[in-house]
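[Q] Does anyone have a clean structure-token version of this?
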Amino acid sequence: MAEPKKFSELGIKLKPTKMPGQRGHLRHVLEKEILVCDFRIKPSKFPQKSEQCLWIQYKIDDKLFVAFSIAQFLMIQLKELPEGWEPFITTITNKNEIYEFV
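[A] Here you go.
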């Protein structure tokens, strides 16, 4: 019988269900430079508003925050990140009621 593998060798990469950080709001960081640390796109608890919800963890002024949003264009942009992406610095703008990373 072959030597059993360690769990870490199985390639299973699940993220914890909660993100650490103080509750924040994206509208408070518009036009400010932030560090995006992590994000998840999950089914929305309010499907009548949007099918998906963005959980985004960011740092500003060395404080860690988590915000929730149904901003569709932000989700589209984040889905384009390559696998294994690293935290990045960005600014969120509001152009005609559409939030966008620049």
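[Q] Thanks! Anything notable?
[A] The first strand starts at residue 22 and ends at 23.
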